UniProtKB/TrEMBL annotation:
Lineage of origin: Eukaryota, Viridiplantae, Streptophyta, Embryophyta, Tracheophyta
Disordered: annotated span: 1-29
Keywords per UniProt: DNA-binding, Nucleus, Transcription, Transcription regulation
GO CC, any one term: nucleus
Keyword Lipid metabolism set for record: no
Stretches with biased composition (Basic and acidic residues): 9-25
InterPro entries: ACT-like_dom_sf, AIG1-like, HLH_DNA-bd_sf
Principal subcellular localisation of the protein: nucleus
Statement: the UniProt record of this protein carries the keyword Metal-binding: no
Membrane-spanning ranges: none
GO molecular function, one term: protein dimerization activity
Originating species: Rhododendron williamsianum
Protein name per its UniProtKB record: Uncharacterized protein
PANTHER family assigned to the protein according to its UniProt record, in alphabetical order: TRANSCRIPTION FACTOR BHLH30, TRANSCRIPTION FACTOR BHLH30-LIKE
Length: 161
């Protein structure tokens, strides 16, 4: 009889150990899932912070590049659609057109058609596309002396930007 009580005690101890191991395994699984979620959340928060920092830097660079005509000018596209036309300070008879909008396959064809319709010739161009946005800076010389009318034609032919 002493032997059977010993085996019963061993069985109880073994069952308790097994239950404890199973409970510990479930606890670790629950904690690891929670930690993975926390890690993803902190990583996402860091990505959002960095993205905001980069947007701020880009906006500051764009603000510093209002009328610069050098090739060192900021070519990063901004988030707003815009079209600016101004007379070139360095090249008489030339208009500087700055266009910023969503990139699309037909954009360059539309710009080319607008310049041709205004009887202009692109003498210099700088273009950049980042994240689905594009910025184009074109220096356009006009064949006919109707600079203002030609500039309006270019502005009207740029897809409503």
């Amino acid at each position: 009889m002493g032997n059977s009580s010993c085996s019963t005690a061993e069985k109880k101890a073994e069952a308790a150990s097994k239950n404890h191991s199973e409970a510990e395994r479930r606890r670790r699984k629950r904690i690891n899932t929670h930690l993975a979620t926390l890690h993803k959340a902190s990583l996402l928060a860091e990505v959002v912070r960095r993205l905001r920092e980069l947007k701020k830097t880009t906006a500051e660079l764009a603000a510093n590049d209002t009328n610069s005509e050098t090739s060192q000018s900021n070519l990063f596209p901004t988030e707003c659609d815009e079209l600016n036309l101004c007379h070139s300070e360095t090249e008489p008879g030339t208009i500087k057109a700055t266009l910023c909008c969503e990139d699309r396959p037909e954009l360059i064809s539309e710009i080319t058609a607008a310049v041709k319709a205004a009887e202009g010739k692109v003498v210099r161009a700088e273009m950049a596309t980042v994240g689905g946005r594009t910025k184009s800076i074109l220096w356009v010389q006009f064949v006919s002396p109707t600079g203002c009318g030609a500039a309006a034609a270019v502005k009207g032919g740029c897809g409503g930007v």
